[in-house]
Prior knowledge:
By secondary structure, this protein is an alpha/beta fold. Helix content is 53%, strand content 12%.
Amino acid sequence: MSDESIKITQKQTGSKSCLTLLGIFVLIMVVLAVLLYSVRGPILRRVGAYLVDTDTTLNRNDVIFVLNGGINTRPFYAAELYDQGKAPRVAIAQSESSPAVELGLLENTTDTAVKIMIMEGVVADNLYLLSAKQPVTSTFDEAAALRRYMIERNYDTVLLITSAMHTRRARWIFEKELAGLDIHMQVAGAPHATFDASNWWTVENGLIFVNNEYIKLFFYWIKYR
């Protein structure tokens, strides 16, 4: 056999080996993809469940503090817990108004939340609006507003209300802000309107919320640790 024939044979053998390895790699990837897809439910449920950090037994507290946002769930849940006697008063920090609110086209979300809670049974005299002169723009601002309020009123127990899959980040932020004070905080999670930790990946709102929450959790951990 000539040298040229040997070289051609070697090239063909090498090409077949590469194709074989490529086929094996593709097969492995397909098998892994099938396996991951088959167990996606338990994995994704754990991803969602990690974001939930709530107290199972809620005691009576000095005040219920409601975080802004979740307008269709948080104020309703706060009013429900107030009605159950979990605290004799409710507080919420005034959120900053958007340009649309300034133009009178929309209502400030805090003002809407206050109206909802009053309509749901919270006595107006027991509802406190914090930081009215310095509207809040973040969860950290809300935590700072609560710290000032707790010190001014000499309260030592608070029930924090936010959306269920926001509770881990919220707890971390508020514990950091309240550190050094003799304050006991409990956290309750209002249910999300269209999803929960068991099915968040099946709806667009759930995908967006969980994605954003993990990004914020990572960002806050890096910036504020």
